[in-house]
Write a structure and sequence with these properties.
TIM Barrel; alpha/beta; two-stranded antiparallel sheet
């Protein structure tokens, strides 16, 4: 069984202190459990519902913080890209480019990410079947870049909920690329009348254990030392001090399946 990797960090770079605090806390956890740690944070949030939602502290400043964390801890880093023209600039700072779920069919964005030569983590749209994800993967591979991951984050179910199908991980793995389970956003409660998504982070452990049991190569878990006061996704991020216990249970499941 391949080594598990964890993509984890805050939803967005909200200052120059919190991201590094999180990374310095998560890295030893992963080292202790034999997990590869990949730090993640959005340098800018482009897909906000409300006009007054926090989007970031400035692109270059946020990207420099992400790159600095990677260099200090000698780990890989990940951030989202939303438009094709952003890719060359962002690729200078991170190791993995993430395609948001709503944009997983955007050909020009996928091509630009592929041309960068970076790993491309494509989030499966809530509206896309596991089988149809072969097409976004093919768009990246068409550029000559075979470094592609797929990230599952649930299916739309009604107006204000998502559902996770336990068969999706093995179905996605048929595409021959690493598969990641987004344990955070699969538990979001989108489309709230307040214009701010809700979430059910108390079930992150459940989703993580199911992902481990069904063969996920990586987990995506956003975490924060004080989620309630975070500037983005406050209702869905995991409390930082709960992460180690979840990861240790995940590793026991994986070991039992070896």
């Amino acid at each position: 069984m391949n080594k598990l990797f964890l993509i984890s960090g805050p939803c967005v770079v909200e200052n120059d202190i919190t991201p590094l605090l999180i990374a310095r806390t998560v890295k030893p956890m992963c080292d202790d459990l034999g997990i590869e740690y990949i730090f993640k944070a959005s340098y800018r949030k482009a897909n906000r519902t409300r006009e007054d939602s926090f989007t970031g502290i400035g692109d270059e400043e946020a990207l420099q913080i992400i790159r600095g964390i990677g260099r200090e801890l000698n780990i890989r880093t990940l951030t989202d890209v939303h438009e094709s023209h952003e890719v060359p600039m962002v690729a200078e700072y991170v190791d993995v480019l993430q395609i948001p779920a709503f944009l997983c069919r955007q050909t020009s964005l996928l091509h630009a990410a592929g041309v960068s030569g970076k790993i491309v983590n494509i989030k499966k749209g809530q509206f896309v079947s596991p089988e149809a994800m072969k097409y976004p993967v093919e768009k990246v591979i068409a550029t000559g870049n075979h470094n592609v991951w797929i990230c599952e984050r649930g299916f739309s179910f009604g107006y204000e909920d998502l559902i996770v199908d336990a068969t999706v991980i093995p179905r996605l793995k048929k595409h021959g690329v690493p598969v990641v389970m987004d344990c955070t956003h699969s538990l979001q409660v989108p489309n709230q009348s307040s214009g701010i998504s809700g979430g059910n982070p108390e079930y992150i452990e459940t989703i993580a254990k199911v992902a481990a049991a069904t063969g996920a190569d990586g987990l995506f878990i956003e975490t924060h030392p004080d989620p309630r006061n975070a500037l983005s996704d406050a209702s869905s991020m995991l409390q930082l001090d709960q992460l180690y216990d979840i990861l240790s249970k995940v590793m026991r499941i994986r070991q039992a399946l070896e």
